[in-house]
Amino acid sequence: MNTDQHLKFSPSIFTLPLLFVFAIWFIYWLEIKFGWNFNKFGVFPRNFSGLKGVFFSPFIHSDTKHLFNNSVPLFVLSACLFYFYKEMSFKVLIYGGIITGLLTWIIARESYHIGASGIVYLLFSFVLFSGIIKKNYRLVAVSFITIFLYGSMIWYVFPIKEGMSWEGHLSGLLTGFALALFYRKKGIVQEKFEFSQTAFDTMFDDEGNYIPPVLEEEIELQEIKYNYIYKEEE
Asked: Signal sequence span per UniProt (predicted)?
């Protein structure tokens, strides 16, 4: 399947990211409306009951700022995923989300880790590294755009801000890179150019030696007939 067949527009490219963003805003609205607190459904490291956060934590946010900061990159990066990597998009989201959550559960501090930022870093890392690994010029362009828009995110995989789950960010970044390697031969790959042979190419052999053309000309000599007219002597 060529690149143009891969890059066919579908309404699901925007519909699914919108549903995801709507879901996290709706759950936050429920918390505000009814005074609920879903933080206990986040990832709590190295505790068996904390494993439920692997599935629920991406939908839970602490405040409006936290929610808004995740919503925009979540929509943009997931739309890129569904458009440029549609064949493996659901696998990256589902498997990547689970692996990110489990890795956070293993390495993080003992606290509730919530928010979709782990998924955001997963998508950021996958889109960034996959384009570079595949060496397709369109995907490489998407990678550079991703760096331009969200390159500053890389600093938040380090513990530079108190109260931020840098472990979840790091887990998403590592998982996205691993999946980019795993799916490097799936979907759009580096295009191989095939050169068509021209008349000029036939003038050289396989070793590059010049082969002079053989000119075959058929020259037809016309038969010349002479008629003699004898002049009578006077």
From this structure: none
